[in-house]
Write a structure and sequence with these properties.
Shape: globular
Number of domains: 3
CATH superfamily of the largest domain: P-loop containing nucleotide triphosphate hydrolases
CATH class of the largest domain: Alpha Beta
Largest sheet: 8 strands, mixed
Strand content: 15-25%
Number of helices: 13
Number of strands: 12
Distance between the termini: 42 Å
CATH architecture of the largest domain: 3-Layer(aba) Sandwich
Order of helices and strands: EEEHEEHEHHHHHEHEHEEHHHEEH
């Protein structure tokens, strides 16, 4: 199957007074039509910067896409003019941004904000755009759409605002939807509704979806493939089953172990010791070596390449071949 999106060796850096912050460093993955890719990792690992790089929304300066390629349907978007990117954004690739309250403009009604994209990309007149906006409000399950059409973002609940963001992102029938933390700050019932809505719309519209989150529960719910990122790099990539049931990287195992458990004997919430190093001073070798129980000298001095451990499953760990031997001990020592 032809790849809808292919990211190759992406590097996005920010040039600051403290030095070069390598927010995304040599990241590669792909997305096929109808597939859901989950990108997971701690805050600061480069998830959102990767998404903004795909949309070419990195502020320059201080940021810059320093290397790599991003192919949408075989065309490298890094070679697109700004006008071509404006046509691509929203029309071919839609994005749900973090924090719907700050992403929505407080001085325009919800209807106006949905209409803006369809008037620009679909060349509809005002009446046609209004009909499309009402159709989208219905599609995302907003009650009384005619009333909500004329309301401002502050008049809506968090879940409603998130649905408005989804309606905006899908208004031009994009081929790819990028959802950056689509369920952050929502209660669990609304979270489940939003995830179910995204899956339903994906099935109806045949989109490729990229879900960016730190929540492994969300990843397990919706993703076909999973990209685990740590400190600007891909730590592990594989199918959801491979990542959840046959993980080969100490960081992935640590993340899985930190999921709260109801069984007796797991009252204490497991954590990964230490913190993510600052992006201006990553270790010379594996970026996870400062927090890894099983790091050896080679881990500190040489960056591990992504190597295939089984078909479609790659990991960047010098000790991946020994991980099964250490896994039981690792699950105890990461707490």
């Amino acid at each position: 199957m032809a790849k809808l999106l292919e990211v190759k060796n992406l590097k996005t850096y920010f040039y600051t007074d403290d030095g070069v912050a390598k927010a995304v460093d040599d990241v590669s993955f792909s997305l096929e039509k109808g597939e859901t890719l989950g990108i997971v990792g701690e805050s600061g690992c480069g998830k959102s910067v990767t998404a903004l790089s795909i949309m070419r929304l990195i502020p320059e300066p201080p940021g810059k896409i320093a290397g790599g390629e991003i192919y949408f349907k075989g065309k490298n978007v890094l070679n697109f003019t700004e006008k071509e990117m404006q046509e691509l954004r929203g029309n071919d690739i839609g994005m749900i941004f973090q924090e719907p309250m700050t992403s929505l403009n407080p001085v325009f009604t919800c209807g106006d904000q949905i209409e803006e994209a369809v008037i620009l990309h679909q060349k509809l007149n005002k009446q046609q755009a209004k009909e499309k906006a009402l159709e989208m409000l219905n599609l995302v399950g907003i009650p009384a759409p005619e009333q909500r059409y004329n309301e401002y973002p502050h008049q809506l609940s968090g879940g409603m605002r998130q649905r408005i963001m989804i309606a905006m992102a899908l208004s031009c029938n994009p081929e790819i939807l990028i959802a950056d933390e689509p369920t952050t700050a929502l209660d669990v019932t609304v979270q489940a509704q939003i995830l179910e809505l995204i899956k339903k719309l994906q099935n109806e519209l045949g989109m490729g979806v990229i879900i960016i989150t730190h929540d492994l529960g969300v990843i397990a719910e919706v993703s076909n493939n999973v990209c685990v990122m740590y400190a600007s790099k891909v730590a592990e990539f594989g199918s959801a089953d491979q990542i959840f049931y046959n993980s080969k990287h100490p960081y992935t195992i640590g993340l899985l172990n930190s999921i709260p458990k109801l069984a007796a004997g797991h009252a204490k919430l497991a954590t990964i010791e230490g913190s993510v190093p600052p992006p201006t001073s990553y270790p010379k070798g594996c970026h996870f070596c400062t927090r890894c129980t099983f790091a050896v000298e080679k881990c500190w001095n040489e960056q591990p390449p992504l190597e295939e451990v089984e078909k479609g499953h790659v990991t960047a760990c010098w000790r991946a071949g020994e991980i099964e031997k250490f896994k039981e001990q690792l699950l105890k020592t990461v707490v």
